[in-house]
Amino acid sequence: MLRASLLILLCLSCACGPSPEASLEKAQKALAGGDYAAAAQSAAQGLAAGAQGATAWRLELAGLEAEARSKQASQVLARLTRLAAGPFAAQLGASLYVQTAGQLKQAGDAGGAIGVLDAGAKRLPQDAEIAKAIEQSKASGSPEELERLRSLGYVE
Length: 156
Fold this sequence. Notes:
The protein is mostly helical and 156 residues long. It contains 9 helices and no strands. It folds into 2 domains: 52 residues, no CATH class; 84 residues.
């Protein structure tokens, strides 16, 4: 009976997968190595494993960065929208929108970067940091950025 109980316990512990903390470490290593798909997967696994508090926030940030660096603007915007409506809303500041937009732009998705700045401007309409980033894009943006700004009403 004891053997059967130990075997069941062992099987259950193996089936649960990595802990949220282990997933976070794996996601951070994957980000550092430029493996954004693996980083996103590890972040998702950590969140699915029941991460809470600071670990959950850090997993969300890892997932967000992985999506941005993979030029997945729609997923980035969906995550930002979900985070803005959840328990991490207070931590979702202008600097995160500007940083994420920069990551999208560096990855080659200038239009997606403008979309993130626009989402930040709508959520934090009086924020000077976001307004400055939009003004910089207007002054020195690529044709793609300027077209996106025009479509959103920032440029006439």
